[in-house]
Design a protein that fits this description.
Blueprint: E1 2-10, H1 14-24, H2 29-37, H3 44-60, E2 69-86, E3 92-107, H4 110-145, H5 167-170, H6 173-185
Antiparallel strand pairs: 1-3, 2-3
Length: 186
């Protein structure tokens, strides 16, 4: 059986809440309570109280709370309080004080979610195998199509013109002149 508990209009940015949620998702409820109790984030107290109320709702239904786990927990963005802050030259910048809504789903059916995860991972493995097979086929086709080409070797004694934008950097004459003018000044 599933029980859903919500906590709305929490005055914390969703960006600060989401990293904590990943630590307790798909864990046993007692294990998740222990994680939240010793977490050093400000939002962990709110999540702890939400989880406690979910367990209490489970007890109200007269169900066994030993095998309860966190099936899903999500954080949605709530409304924003819009404020203004005065800055220099008579201007004002916007300040958005964000809120979030938490939704916690507790369940005792852990096997169903594990079976779904296995099917997803097997589908991903099939996709990876197909990609590797396609890459191998393309590599074989490219080897066959490319014929070996020979390039004539340039003579070592013949200087070649530089192709780059900075031709002065490629020649050694200006550097030699600078060195000789410095010696002449001294």
């Amino acid at each position: 059986m599933e029980i859903t508990v919500k906590k709305m209009y929490l005055r914390v940015s969703p960006r600060k809440v989401r990293p904590v949620l990943f630590g307790i998702k798909r864990k046993n409820a007692s294990e998740a309570l222990a994680i939240l109790k010793y977490a050093e984030t400000a939002v962990s107290n709110d999540l702890y109280s939400l989880l406690k109320s979910g367990i209490a709702a489970y007890k109200d239904q007269e169900l066994d709370t030993e095998n309860v786990f966190v099936k899903n927990i999500k954080c949605d963005e709530g409304p924003r309080l819009k404020r203004r802050r005065i800055v220099s030259k008579g201007r004002a910048t916007a300040i958005k004080k964000r809120m979030c809504h938490l939704t916690l789903t507790l369940s005792d059916e852990i096997e169903a979610t594990k079976a779904n995860n296995k099917t997803k991972s097997s589908k991903e493995e099939v996709k990876v195998e197909k990609k590797e097979a396609n890459k191998a086929e393309k590599a074989e086709v490219n080897k066959v199509e490319k014929a070996p080409t020979t390039t004539p070797k340039a003579d070592v004694g013949v200087p070649t013109e530089s192709v780059g934008k900075n031709k002065k950097a490629d020649t050694a004459k200006p550097k030699a002149k600078k060195a000789s003018t410095k010696q002449a000044k001294e």
